[in-house]
Specification:
The chain is of the alpha+beta class and 174 residues long. The protein is globular and about 45 Å long. Strands 1, 2, 3, 4, 5, 6, 9 and 10 form an eight-stranded antiparallel β-sheet that branches. Strands 7-8 form a two-stranded antiparallel sheet. The chain has one domain: Pnp Oxidase, Chain A, CATH 2.30.110.10. The longest helix has 9 residues. The protein is built from five helices and ten strands; from the N terminus they run βαββββαβααβββαβ. 34% of the residues are buried.
Length: 174
């Protein structure tokens, strides 16, 4: 299907809906250039420093963490409902031990603004350049969050990705 450039604010309601049901894949590349998709359920879109940004939270223990530290860019790929099994797989195995792209037959497309690729089978994409990152500070989190989300002290790093380009499938029914 053909993709066309859109405003980053187009379809945000659906992006958030798909994220809450686990339909987003963040893609970055490792030091050898291998693309690694990982399912994300925590993130948001906003404006910081007068720039459109996607904030993505990635734990230090994840393979994606090392990929992001290497590439300093990423793509966000919104998967349609029929990709649910693939999205679940990408969130359950590590790119350290698996080539998720090959194993699930995903097609990579060259992004225009960043080195990390897009996933053709997805319906909306953000191309993002990391403009800031910081680690969560456990002492500043609300007390009830830590036992629920960080029982093993595996805290996230927040990546601020400036959205340089957004594209979507022309015929996808939002």
């Amino acid at each position: 299907m053909a993709k066309r450039e859109i405003a980053y604010t187009d379809h945000l309601d659906k992006v958030f809906e798909f994220m809450s049901t686990g339909g987003l894949l963040i893609v970055s590349k490792d030091k050898d250039g291998k693309a690694n998709p990982m399912t994300i359920g925590w993130g948001t879109v906003g404006v910081i420093w007068r720039r459109p940004v996607f904030l993505a939270l990635v734990r230090h223990s994840r393979y994606t963490f090392s990929c992001l530290e290497h590439t300093r860019d990423f793509t966000i790929n919104v998967a349609p409902p029929e990709m649910k099994a693939i999205v679940e797989y990408c969130g359950s195995v590590s790119g350290r031990n698996h080539d998720k792209v090959a194993e699930k037959g995903l097609t990579l497309l060259r992004a225009e603004k960043v080195s990390s690729p897009l996933i053709q089978e997805c319906v909306l994409h953000y191309e993002c350049k990391v403009i800031h990152k910081h680690d969560l500070v456990p002492e500043t989190l609300a007390r009830e969050i830590i036992p629920q989300y960080y029982p093993a002290d595996d805290f996230h790093r927040v990546y601020y990705g400036e959205i340089l380009r957004a594209v979507a499938e022309e015929r996808f029914r939002w």
